[in-house]
Amino acid sequence: MQAACRRAQTSCSWTQARGMAISVAPPKYAMPGRTFSGKKADQYEWYTAMLAASHTSPLLVLNFLEFRADKLVQLRQDIIQASRRVHKPTPDAPPRPTPTFTAVRSSIFGAALRDYPDLNLDTVTRITEGVTGPVGVLALPTLDPPELSAVLRALDRNFPPRPPKTEQELQAEEAAKRADPHTPGRREKRMRPIRVPEIKLLGAMIDGQMLAPPRLQEVSKLPSLPTLHAQLVGLLSAPASQLTMVLNEASGGKLHRTLQGLQKSLEEQAGGPPA
């Protein structure tokens, strides 16, 4: 089990959701000049480097609940397979880096976000409000919308969002709490709840800015970067090609005939050719 935990870059204690949250608010009791030390300093530098790499390597911020190490290993394999279906390896091309998952310490990660320059902290606060439990970061090799779309589909396929409870279900739970015990005078046998793994996409760090899930979905629907480059080149070259066409027509005599027609129309308006 310990080896499986190391492969998933996570902790076996994730089977129990703890009250952890990402906060970018300033510390309540600020101490000027205070810095992290030891392991916390290493984590802070590591997370800051990850955020800086978001200009070329997008980061998906995920919230995990009720996860075991073996489930995280399986999730990592599914994400790698989804990435390889978009970018199929070829014998001639060098192996392409695969997405990597990292479990982060929420408090240190929040401090790195707070100190990152020119970050839209309002969006970070909005998407992390009320979030508890472990947090992980999934780093993609490059910003490739088709690959991003495949990874998001893999997440939804493995862990579809839980539907909200209906009014009848809420009433049934409330009635069960108020119901009389089956055996009066004896303590009810404690039943361990069935833990269902759940994953929630909080947002994504792309090009140094945090995007909420709706904006991230819009990015995933874009074409690939080579296609976008070709479209941009086509837009930029369109005016130049039109100017070239006009000049070619002028060199073929059309401009001369156009000027002759203009001269004739002016002469007719003046009542005859000038003396």
UniProtKB/TrEMBL annotation:
Q: Where is the composition biased (Basic and acidic residues)?
A: 164-186
Give the signal sequence positions: none
Instruction: Region Disordered: list its residue ranges.
Output: 158-189
Q: Which InterPro entries match?
A: Ribosomal_uL10-like_sf, Ribosomal_uL10_bac_type
Give the similarity note. Belongs to the universal ribosomal protein uL10 family.
- What's the protein name? 50S ribosomal protein L10
The major lineage groups are: Eukaryota, Fungi, Dikarya, Basidiomycota, Agaricomycotina
